[in-house]
């Protein structure tokens, strides 16, 4: 049975993120997406262990990253990150309005709102596509075999969805860290596969590049 994304309370999500950033026993790749509070309850936080991550680059300042939460053939979540300029450590100020990357975040088989957080509705073939921008800080220059990078305060909002998808996040923020392996061919392959899966679930094309 496919394991759903984890919905955590604020304290648990913050602890998981801190452990990942400090290199503790948590997953080396973890992203937290935190929604806004609603009249019906506190903010929803979606945590994913993005242990499958690849990147491609042919420029010292630009790169494309594909991150998967779950098995590549049936991911629970996917994130496609485009870095369009690389900050320089100690020289680039990180300001609240600063952005150097865009992100497309795919959430597969979102839980039904009627069941409530923490109850798995199973894979109903639903999909929510969130999009936004934020700040990405690679810890080393691009081009190496592996690369560790941190996502800082990326804003997300629902761009489109399948008919039965329930948006529990609303306006959201993404934060976390991940380790990606460089493989241009694998990135191209995953983008094609995700584009096909997205088209099938939405019923119309939403290409990922």
UniProtKB/TrEMBL annotation:
Name of the protein in its database record: Lipoprotein
UniProt keyword list: Signal
Lineage: Bacteria, Pseudomonadati, Planctomycetota, Phycisphaerae, Phycisphaerales
Signal peptide boundaries: 1-18
């Amino acid at each position: 049975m496919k394991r759903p994304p984890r919905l955590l309370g604020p304290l648990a999500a913050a602890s998981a993120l801190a452990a990942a950033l400090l290199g503790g026993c948590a997953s080396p790749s973890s992203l937290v997406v935190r929604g806004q509070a609603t009249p019906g309850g506190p903010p929803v936080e979606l945590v994913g262990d993005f242990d499958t991550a690849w990147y491609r680059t042919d420029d010292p300042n630009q790169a494309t990253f594909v991150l998967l939460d779950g098995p590549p053939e049936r991911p629970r979540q996917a994130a496609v990150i485009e870095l369009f300029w690389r900050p320089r450590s100690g020289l680039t100020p990180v300001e609240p309005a600063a952005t150097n990357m865009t992100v497309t975040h795919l959430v597969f088989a979102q839980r039904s709102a009627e069941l409530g957080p923490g109850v798995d509705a199973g894979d109903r073939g639903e999909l929510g596509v969130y999009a936004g921008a934020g700040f990405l800080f690679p810890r080393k220059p691009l081009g190496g075999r592996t690369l560790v990078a941190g996502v800082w305060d990326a804003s997300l909002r629902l761009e489109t969805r399948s008919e039965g998808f329930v948006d529990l996040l609303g306006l959201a923020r993404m934060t976390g860290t991940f380790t990606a392996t460089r493989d241009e061919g694998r990135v191209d392959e995953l983008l094609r596969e995700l584009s096909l899966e997205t088209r099938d679930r939405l019923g119309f094309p939403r290409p990922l590049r």
